[in-house]
Design goal:
The chain is an alpha/beta fold. It contains 2 helices and 8 strands. The protein is globular, with a radius of gyration of 15 Å.
Length: 113
């Protein structure tokens, strides 16, 4: 992910994911903590941010914990954007923006019966 401030954005996402930061200088890496985890790499932006965001992450949390997780991530520096709670039976989500304005969602799926 390119960033205006790769160190600050890496610190934010480390707080969200619980992953450790490695690297330094210009680039920072959040290594996966388990084989099922994902990694993130942050480097300086070489050009201005695009007008439209091409992709964003959806982070899934256990059913019933979305509201608490959203509050935790807002306290880390995310900005609340909107909720989608009744459009789909199989998912509810909250859209947030990280400190550099990148959109991402925290989603929960009801238990399967």
């Amino acid at each position: 992910m390119t960033a205006d401030d790769p160190e600050a954005l890496a610190k934010f996402w480390a707080g969200v994911t619980g992953n450790e930061i490695s690297g330094g200088g210009d680039s920072y890496y959040l290594a996966p903590t388990t084989p099922d985890d994902f990694a993130l790499f942050f480097q300086p932006a070489a050009q201005p941010r695009a007008q439209a965001q091409v992709a964003h992450m959806d982070l899934t949390v256990p059913w019933g914990s979305r509201t608490q997780e959203v509050q935790r991530v807002i306290e880390l520096g995310a900005e609340y954007k909107w909720d989608v709670l009744e459009e789909f039976e199989h998912v509810q989500w909250t859209t947030l923006a990280d400190p550099e304005g990148n959109l991402f969602c925290i989603a929960e799926h009801p238990p399967v019966n």
